[in-house]
Amino acid sequence: MTNQKKPTKTTLQTLAGKLGISKTTVSLVLKGDGDRYRISRKTQQRVLECAEKEGFVPDFLARALATNKTATIGIIFPDVHESFMSEMLKGIESVFYESDYSLMISTSGFDTEIEDRNIRQMLHKKVDGLILVPYVPIARNNYKHSYMKLLSKTDCPFVFADRLPENAGSLNWIIQDDFEAAEKAVCLLFEKGCRSIGCMSFNLSTSSINNRLEGFKSGIEGCGLPLSSRSIILLDRQDPHSDDITGRLLRDNSLRTEYDGLLITTGGLAHKTGYLLRKALPADKVPVIAKFGRDPDYFDTGMIQIIQPNVNMGIAAARVLLDKILNRDRSPIQKILKSRIIDIGEKNEEKCN
Amino acid sequence: MTNQKKPTKTTLQTLAGKLGISKTTVSLVLKGDGDRYRISRKTQQRVLECAEKEGFVPDFLARALATNKTATIGIIFPDVHESFMSEMLKGIESVFYESDYSLMISTSGFDTEIEDRNIRQMLHKKVDGLILVPYVPIARNNYKHSYMKLLSKTDCPFVFADRLPENAGSLNWIIQDDFEAAEKAVCLLFEKGCRSIGCMSFNLSTSSINNRLEGFKSGIEGCGLPLSSRSIILLDRQDPHSDDITGRLLRDNSLRTEYDGLLITTGGLAHKTGYLLRKALPADKVPVIAKFGRDPDYFDTGMIQIIQPNVNMGIAAARVLLDKILNRDRSPIQKILKSRIIDIGEKNEEKCN
DNA sequence: TTGAAAGCGCTAACAC
DNA sequence: GTGTTAGCGCTTTCAA
Fold it and tell me: Which residues of B touch A57 (CB under 8 A)?
């Protein structure tokens, strides 16, 4: 009834007091190192029982301060809306769940300053490792990620996923086979009879997009088709109300009619383009479209889909990071995961939610 | 060249030493309390400069241990794939970004034990607050969330979002107007000429679904239509390969033909149903569908959409939580946010990604 | 105005 | 086998 505000949280000290032994012994036993330090079975037993009875849980912050470890992983995404975020996250979670790590997540909302700040914040909060999906601003060719300097001098292990910043040659990363996937998609379009194949993309100077464009070119050449200045359509704006795909398609007549096949490097752009073309052209004039990204469940777009290994990318990134955290070996690990191409009408497992 | 391993991290102590004053003074000044403690302007100036020069950053864990605050918010989602997660997250982030909080996120993957564990873990990690989107297992009518006990005895403020567990009457929560939205959607179907309106839903005993079902009934009665045992179709499985919508639609002929309007309580289910019905029936026999959830960009489903205020729900939940964290007032805050109904063919802002 | 010192609760090197 | 003790780096009360 008096100032019993504090239910006197059970601490190591409390336990030690109750048992009449020292904090050290208790700590050792509770960590499972009892045998290694040859603490008598009897003592161990008593400690365990008492801890159980008192519902002792070691204070996280105190331990973290002492060990400088937080069992927390930081993850930086460019944006929440990218559908691959949830898939990657699933993969990442599945790995870290086992080891009792928590995930601290932040998105940069397409703003490099925020991205920078978020990375700084995570390092400040002492995450044990970092998974980074870098954001690359559109149409700035020589953009340098300012956080690269920060990262270069941190002890905290990190791994890039999906796309790379500049100079990532000797760092850890997991990406997908953008080049090969684009190449194959072009071949598939060719097999379907397309002879005037174009490629449409946002003009992002990031590795994944670059690789897709290169893969496209290689595919075109591999099929013996000509490559012209009109083969690749680069969009400089993501804003639908300005000089982007809508405007281009409406103004440039030939753009609407000169292709019988189109490789589109991102899903959203593909859906929009498909939507516009279907509106603008008679059905038999709409080019065959191949695109990166999976269609939403239960919507048949009639496009060739390049399915990216997002869940696996998450798993791989998490595993690499865990390895770097646990082992002192800092030699870079780099992986390229395979995509899968789903042909038009090919059976795509159905999901329900 | 020698054992200079440690670049001797700058600490309060270091600074104090360099300046020839005490830690206290430095700490006070750096926290901005210099004036309040009437520390001389000159000293303050010196401290600030020195801290700047040395690039001093207070150690997060040490401060957290001392203050028992982590500037971290825990968020529990049932699953990453629910599209509303990314929208809510956007809202939540927008609020906490300002105040320099980090977000620790975990998903329970439709498993109540994991959900429980995750909450426990977040409390253990000393999050300053918790946003919970509870998972409710399908078809278990009397399910009790075991974490309610845990929460009842924690000091950590928390707020429920989107749906409520049992006994949430006196807790903080933000939900949406499921009842009214369902009711209105039914009226809209009626206005469109539907006279045999059914409702299809997963059989989840959670507040949001219950409210939608009640809203449906109320709407039906409001329109003067009869309510029969066949008005509501409850599905007990989410597994598409078992006795769920697919099976029901294929086996039960009348199910396919007895409705001219359908209210469906979740987006994924609606898309699947629409897909199946369009396949099974001639176009003029497919019932008009109203459903919760927004269609994917650039896909016209021809359904009435009930757009839920997900971003705002995130914002509201975050604000409430922040308020509870900063103020000692613990009286519950509860809000119901409005949904918006988009009629078939109504212009829906287009996005590009 | 400023400083000393007692925490916060745990870890780990070292002593007995 | 078990205990002592010095950190980890910051906050905060109290005294000067």
Answer: 124
- A102 with A90, same domain: the answer is yes
pLDDT at A5 over 60: no
Q: How far apart are CA B339 and CA A251, in angstroms?
A: 38
Distance CA B160, CA B145 (A): 13
Interchain CB contacts (distance < 8 Å): A and B: 146
B100 contacts in chain A (CB < 8 Å):
121
Within-domain flag for B4: no
Alpha carbons B148 and B58: distance in angstroms, whole number: 36
Among chain B residues, the shortest Cα distance to A61 is held by B65
A128: tokens are 């044990």
Q: A199 and A146, same structural domain?
A: no
Domain-located, residue A259: yes
Residues B106, B174 contacting (CB under 8 angstroms):
no
Report the distance from CA of residue B74 to the C1' of nucleotide D9 in Å, as an integer. Answer: 25
- Token pair 């009640």 is found at B214
Which nucleotide has the least CA–C1' distance to B22? C3
3-state class (DSSP) for residue A328:
coil
CA distances to A97, A103, B46, B117, B286 from B124, in Å? 15, 14, 39, 10, 53
How many domains does chain B contain in total?
3
Could you report the average pLDDT of every consecutive run of 10 residues in chain B (353 residues)?
A: 49 82 84 78 84 88 93 92 85 93 92 92 96 83 82 94 90 97 98 94 89 97 93 76 61 75 92 86 90 88 94 97 91 96 74 34
Cβ contact B272–A106 (<8 Å): no
- CATH code for the domain in which residue A234 is found: 3.40.50.2300
Residues of B in Cβ contact (< 8 Å) with A86 = 80-81, 85-86
CA–CA gap between residue A5 and residue A27 (Å, rounded): 27
Examine the domain organization and report whether B301 and B185 are in the same domain. yes
Q: Which helix (H) or strand (E) holds A234?
A: strand A232-235
For strands B102-107 and A102-107, give the pairing: antiparallel
Residues A151 and A34 in one domain: no
Range of the domain at A215: 178-307
Q: Is the torsion defined by CA of B307, B310, B315, B317 positive or negative? A: positive
- Domain membership of residue B31 (yes or no) is yes
Write out the DSSP string of A245-270: HHHHHHH-HHHHHS-SEEEESSHHHH
| Contact yes or no for A268 and B297 at CB 8 A | yes
Please tell me the pTM assigned to this model. Answer: 0.91
Q: At a CB cut-off of 8 Å and minimum separation 6, what does B279 contact?
A: none
What is the Cα Rg of chain A in Å? 27
Task: Centre a 10 Å sphere on the Cβ of residue A90 and count the other Cβ atoms it contains.
Answer: 18
Closest chain B residue to A90, measured at CA: B80
Q: Which amino acid is at A168?
A: A
Q: Where are the beta strands (DSSP E) in A86-177?
A: 102-107, 129-132, 158-161, 173-176
- What backbone torsions phi and psi does residue A165 show, to the nearest 5 degrees? -80, 180
Is the residue at B6 inside a domain? no
- Strand spans (E) along chain B: 72-77, 102-107, 129-132, 158-161, 173-176, 197-202, 232-235, 261-264, 288-292, 304-307, 334-337, 340-342
Q: pLDDT at residue A348 above 60?
A: no
